[in-house]
Design goal:
Chain A: Residues 35-259 form the Rab-GAP TBC domain. The complex is a heterodimer of chains A (331) and B (213). With 331 residues, chain A is mostly helical. In chain A, 65% of the residues lie in helices and 0% in strands. Classes of the chains: A mainly alpha (331), B alpha/beta (213). Chains A and B meet through α5, α11 and α15 of A and β2 of B.
């Protein structure tokens, strides 16, 4: 009972915040950190990412302009048919689209797959330093699903977007593209040659775990487990291979509230908290046990509560270690 | 853990090759972890590396294969090469229905020469042999290429699991033969499971003499 009233009270605050003629980004961030009500998420995410303007009078025109802009990019890009495309990039995308969330109906539908293909390809050619890198396909899925939910009443995971009017699908696709772009802007180093962003994050994570949980770090070292062997994927796919999309969506509420660099900075602390969570189990395991356990973690039943615990642990680590990092960063 | 340490030999084998040739399915088929029905479902792309293990019998000895299934995309090359450390075998997989994946075999061989132990045993694996009507790489051509380059060769279909067992049997037996012959040579020194990196001694003159054949 009480919980429900807290929730409706929170929702009320959100509505109030988002209805302002000029949205206060700080207030929205503060609210979003603890999770965004699903109905308000599409708008809140777009505002937090700086895609939707804070001032209400320019929102409609900005959206229309961005959607048009994306539409013309698509047209220009695919004007010469498939022959006109960069073949290695297109080939990789073609292979990966059917491998995106296999088994989930939404991602098996023709309309969804074609949207995904265009989003990935247009992004890739506009970012030649990285191009398309496997795993970026995973990162599109929360956006697409959340933005589609604004137009339907049922579970987006089993809804065929082909049933929606074309203009709606185009809007969902364009919004997903721009929001993906903004997210990736903050982590482009993860996907350029030699993936220096990931290498750096994995190194830092190892350093941090050494301080946060020295016995675990020592155990992993004695078993010759290298952080790169498991944490590479944690960075490359932002833990999307480790937790459900529902979990990811809740996690991104907080990441977006933290700011776009959260996808590299705050994420590092989330990964540390995530590893340390299994410390007692891991310390009982040998090399093979550790690697096998970490590549299929028992997170299937995780709900918002588990993610929120993880996020608060990460918050704590961040506040303890973030400034301290400069002290040992140079060594 | 589960299998414990009941093995005589532990061999690390890497699975490499272009994206989409079916490396992960080859690994799964060897582990018998899927049935034909599940095959209809695409699996997610491999990011970084995925680890699996299974023990088989060679000459009455238990050989445990530690399989490192790697991501195929070019961009991951800088990272995946780190996974070659300590590998004594490599299954280099291409898709018999996609000629480009066969052309790239040369690049993968160079990759191994640059980053893996020069004694690594390499097997060329033409996967998807069930796609007969789409064949783009003639068996004879791949066979001749393998002989020239000192590789063993096999065609597999992870779909119906044909020859997958054979591929692993062959490469693990080859490795076993080499390792046990070496252990006779060097008499008393124990064969340790490959763990850490190959120690590099004084810099050698000119190239490393990629002795993979």
């Amino acid at each position: 009972m009480r919980e429900r009233s807290i929730r409706s009270n929170r929702k009320h605050k959100f509505i109030e915040c988002l209805s302002n003629r000029d949205i206060s980004i700080n207030e929205l961030r503060k609210l979003a950190w603890a999770g965004i009500p699903p109905e308000l998420r599409p708008m809140a995410w777009q505002v937090l990412l700086g895609y939707l303007p804070l001032a209400s009078e320019s929102r409609t025109s900005t959206l229309a302009r961005k959607r048009d802009e994306y539409q013309s990019m698509v047209e220009a890009t695919f004007a010469r048919g498939k022959e006109g495309l960069d073949q290695p990039i297109w080939h990789q995308i073609e292979i990966d689209v059917p491998r995106t969330r296999p088994g989930v109906q939404l991602w098996m539908f023709e309309t969804t797959q074609r949207c995904l293909e265009r989003i990935l390809y247009v992004w890739a050619i506009r970012h030649p330093a990285s191009g398309y890198v496997q795993g970026i396909n995973d990162l599109v899925t929360p956006f697409f699903q959340v933005f589609m939910s604004a137009y339907i009443d049922t579970d987006p995971e089993s809804f065929d977007p082909g049933l929606l009017p074309k203009s709606v699908v185009d809007a969902i696709e364009a919004d997903s593209f721009w929001c993906l772009s903004r997210l990736l802007d903050g982590i482009q180093d993860n996907y350029i040659f030699a993936q220096p962003g990931i290498q750096r994050s994995v190194r830092r994570m190892q350093e941090l775990v050494g301080r946060i949980d020295a016995p675990l770090a020592a155990h992993l070292e004695s078993e010759h487990v290298e952080f790169m062997q498991f944490a590479f994927r944690w960075m490359n796919c932002l833990l999307m291979r480790e937790i459900s999309v529902q979990n990811t969506i809740r996690m991104w509420d907080t990441y977006l509230a933290e700011g776009t660099d959260a996808f590299s900075q705050f994420h590092l602390y989330v990964c540390c908290a995530f590893l340390v969570k299994w410390s007692d189990k891991l310390k009982q395991m040998d090399f093979q046990g550790v690697i096998m356990f970490l590549q299929s973690l028992p997170t299937q039943d995780w709900g918002d509560h588990d993610i929120e615990m993880l996020l608060s642990e990460a918050f704590l680590l961040n506040s303890i270690w973030h400034n301290a990092q400069s002290h040992f960063g140079g060594k | 853990m589960t299998e414990g340490s009941n093995y005589d030999y532990l061999f690390k084998v890497v699975l490499i090759g272009d994206s989409g040739v079916g490396k992960s399915y080859v690994s799964l088929a060897f582990l018998s972890r899927f049935t034909r029905n599940e095959f209809n479902l695409e699996s997610k792309s491999t990011i970084g590396v995925e680890f699996a293990t299974r023990s088989i019998n060679v000459d009455g000895k238990t050989v445990k294969a530690q399989i490192w299934d790697t991501a195929g995309q070019e961009r991951y090359r800088a990272i995946t090469s780190a996974y070659y450390r300590g590998a004594v075998g490599a299954l280099l997989v291409y898709d018999i229905a996609k000629h480009a994946t066969y052309v790239n075999v040369t690049r993968w061989l160079k990759e191994l020469r640059d980053h893996a132990d020069s004694n690594i045993v390499i097997m060329l694996v033409g996967n998807k042999s069930d796609l007969k009507h789409l064949r783009a790489v003639p068996t004879d051509e791949a066979k001749a290429f393998s002989t020239e380059n000192g590789l063993s060769f096999i065609e597999t279909s992870a779909l119906d699991a044909s020859n997958v067992e054979g591929a692993f049997q062959t490469i693990l037996t080859d490795i076993y033969r080499i390792v046990s012959a070496k252990s006779l040579e060097s008499s008393s020194t124990n064969i340790e499971p490959p763990t850490q990196g190959i120690s590099v001694t004084a810099p050698e003159p000119a190239d490393k003499g990629g002795k993979c054949c």
